[in-house]
């Protein structure tokens, strides 16, 4: 199992947001977290990536408990995240942003047979990233920044890639481009955990999903259940957008 | 007005410019790496100057080793401040103003500690390269002042390379620009902040060592240096070491011209008025918005 989250509680300071969330992601599986604004999706991502401390529960990554590990150690363990805010360094060039991730990626523990991502690989996935190498990130469009953020995450050589609201605010053409990249990543055996507000996009990107509301998982969408979930008005109206 | 007098005055102004620049560079380094406005940068200079005097005079160390002791003391002070004060404050989610108040408080504390330990006496160090002078266009400049300017320029070039070419420098910028983003790619943000304080402390101490042969070091020297250093750093955009040098030149040279044209009593009024005017007209500093990201 790539990721196991058990009865996780986390929040911001004394304010609890997650109330006993349990999810799992298997090897080479793509799983979505869906739910309306304020459901706790981003807090779950932050807790998994060590940016918010869990107050109760457990997080295991490939069998190792990482609940109390510092945030910067999660990347070394093989978890990469593209944050909702992207987390790029705007005043640095694209090349420098990638260089920093490449440096960390060299120290990541890799399983046998893992083929590391090279700069050439990410340029092949996102040709625009190569073209903009010398440009400061803050001068790029939103879509270009998102591509740099994914490219940077891949250079961390992750076994699990967490994507928080990756497609929000992007043009449909860019969304399609990113979708095709995600398909390519899955063919390389990577596990994906994708937070998405749009259930249609979530269905296009993943095998199954957890529906969150008010800090809890309130529904699970199993393999082959996307169609029935999308046509279920009660679930859509209660917990989802689009 | 005699042209030699003007040249002599400009040379004195040039030397002062680089003194202010060195303090401003330290302020810029700490602001760039932590987003903390450091009101005690001049006190790193006091620590550096005092410890070098101690090493040279009391401990009998060779000049180079005494300087190394002074720089190490500045760096260690920076690290101590980060570990003892800044980290606990960040854990308690302190606001930006709290850090400014912290550094103001530390400035007074260090001044009082130096008074208690070292006494009221002011101390001088011998100049680097001796106490000789060089004649330039009929005016005289001390050899030490030439070393001071050369070392300041080396520090700026070194910082430029460090922040642009090394993983440590890029990581320090990344940690301050977006701490979450930095953490997510494996950068230890707290450690980078510690490194920034060490670097800022070391540069401050170096400034103190270079100033002490010109103006003797004493417990109360810090505040005055901090104020001029601030003026230089602010004019330079607060994040760019090269900007701090340009800011230092504006302050130092306008002071010296005020001394020649008006009287020495007006030098601060003229220099700080020019600073205020430039801030109103160029709110992002001499290098503009893009320049704030450089260096």
What is the strand and helix layout of this fold?
The complex is a heterodimer of chains A (242) and B (295).
Chain A: E1 3-12, E2 15-25, E3 30-34, H1 41-48, E4 54-61, E5 64-65, H2 71-77, E6 79-82, H3 94-105, H4 119-125, H5 127-131, H6 142-154, E7 160-164, H7 172-187, E8 191-196, H8 199-205, E9 208-213, E10 216-221, H9 226-230, H10 233-239
Parallel strand pairs in A: 3-8, 3-9, 6-7, 7-8
Antiparallel strand pairs in A: 1-2, 1-4, 4-5, 9-10
Helix pairs in contact in A: 3-6
Chain B: H1 3-34, H2 41-58, H3 63-91, H4 96-118, E1 133-136, E2 139-142, H5 143-165, H6 167-177, H7 179-184, H8 189-211, H9 221-235, H10 241-261, H11 267-281, H12 288-292
Helix pairs in contact in B: 1-5, 1-8, 1-9, 1-10, 2-3, 2-4, 2-8, 2-9, 3-8, 5-6, 6-8, 9-10, 10-11
What does this protein look like?
- The complex is a heterodimer of chains A (242) and B (295).
- Chain A is an alpha/beta fold.
- Chain A has a domain at 3-87 and 159-239: P-loop containing nucleotide triphosphate hydrolases (Rossmann fold, 3-Layer(aba) Sandwich).
- Chain A has helices at 41-48, 71-77, 94-105, 119-125, 127-131, 142-154, 172-187, 199-205, 226-230, 233-239, and strands spanning 3-12, 15-25, 30-34, 54-61, 64-65, 79-82, 160-164, 191-196, 208-213, 216-221.
- Chain A has a six-stranded mixed sheet with strand order 6-7-8-3-9-10, sandwiched between helices.
- In chain A, strand 9 and strand 10 (216-221) form a beta hairpin.
- Chain A starts with a strand and ends with a helix.
- The mean pLDDT of chain A is 88.
- Chain B is mainly alpha-helical and 295 residues long.
- Chain B has one domain (3-292): Orthogonal Bundle (ABC transporter involved in vitamin B12 uptake, BtuC).
- Helix content of chain B is 75%, strand content 3%.
- Chain B has twelve helices and two strands; from the N terminus they run ααααββαααααααα.
- The mean pLDDT of chain B is 87.
- Classes of the chains: A alpha/beta (242), B mainly alpha (295).
- Chains A and B meet through helix 2 and helix 3 of A and helix 6 and helix 7 of B.
């Amino acid at each position: 199992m790539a990721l196991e989250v058990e009865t996780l509680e986390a929040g911001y300071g004394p304010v609890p947001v997650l109330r006993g969330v349990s999810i799992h992601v298997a090897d080479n599986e793509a799983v979505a977290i869906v739910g309306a604004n304020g459901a706790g999706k981003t807090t779950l991502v932050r807790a998994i990536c060590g940016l918010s401390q869990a107050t109760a529960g457990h997080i295991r990554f490939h069998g190792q408990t990482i609940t109390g590990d510092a945030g910067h150690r999660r990347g070394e363990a093989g978890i990469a995240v593209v944050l909702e805010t992207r987390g790029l360094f705007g005043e640095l060039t694209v090349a420098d942003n990638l260089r920093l991730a490449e440096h960390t990626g060299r120290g990541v523990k890799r399983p046998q047979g893992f083929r590391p991502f090279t700069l050439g690989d990410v340029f092949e996935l996102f040709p625009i990233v190569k073209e903009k190498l010398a440009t400061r990130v803050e001068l790029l469009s939103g879509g270009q920044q998102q591509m740099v953020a994914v490219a940077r995450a891949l250079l961390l050589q992750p076994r699990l890639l967490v994507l928080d609201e990756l497609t929000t605010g992007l043009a449909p053409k860019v969304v399609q481009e990113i979708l095709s990249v995600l398909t390519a990543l899955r063919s390389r055996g990577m596990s994906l955990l994708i937070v998405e507000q749009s259930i249609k996009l979530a269905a296009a990107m993943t095998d199954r999903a957890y529906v969150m509301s008010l800090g809890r998982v309130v529904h699970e969408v199993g393999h082959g259940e996307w169609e029935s979930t999308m046509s279920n008005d009660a679930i859509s109206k209660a917990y989802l957008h689009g | 007005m005699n042209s030699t007098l003007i040249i002599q005055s400009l040379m004195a102004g040039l030397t002062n410019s680089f003194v202010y620049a060195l303090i401003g560079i330290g302020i810029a380094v700490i602001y760039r790496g932590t987003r903390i406005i450091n009101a005690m940068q001049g006190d790193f200079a006091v620590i550096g100057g005092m410890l070098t005097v101690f090493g040279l005079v009391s401990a009998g160390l060779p000049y180079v080793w005494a300087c190394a002791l002074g720089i190490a003391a500045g760096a260690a002070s920076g690290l101590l401040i980060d570990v003892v004060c800044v980290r606990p404050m960040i854990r308690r989610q302190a606001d930006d103003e709290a850090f400014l108040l912290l550094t103001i408080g530390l400035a007074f504390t260090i001044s009082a500690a130096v008074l208690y330990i070292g006494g009221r006496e002011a101390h001088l160090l011998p100049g680097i390269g001796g106490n000789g002078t060089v004649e330039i266009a009929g005016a005289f400049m001390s050899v030490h002042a030439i070393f001071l300017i050369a070392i300041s320029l080396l520090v700026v070039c070194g910082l430029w390379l460090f922040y642009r070419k090394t993983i440590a420098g890029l990581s320090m910028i990344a940690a301050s620009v977006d701490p979450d983003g930095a953490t997510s790619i494996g950068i230890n943000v707290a450690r980078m902040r510690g490194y920034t304080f060490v670097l800022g402390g070391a540069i401050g101490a170096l400034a103190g060592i270079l100033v002490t042969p010109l103006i003797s070091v004493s417990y109360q020297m810090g505040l005055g240096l901090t104020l001029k250093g601030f003026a230089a750093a602010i004019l330079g955009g607060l994040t760019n070491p090269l900007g701090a040098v340009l800011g230092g030149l504006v302050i130092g040279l306008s002071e010296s011209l005020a001394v020649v044209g008006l009287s020495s009593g007006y030098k601060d009024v003229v220099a700080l008025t020019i600073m205020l005017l430039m801030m109103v007209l160029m709110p992002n500093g001499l290098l503009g918005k893009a320049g704030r990201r450089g260096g």
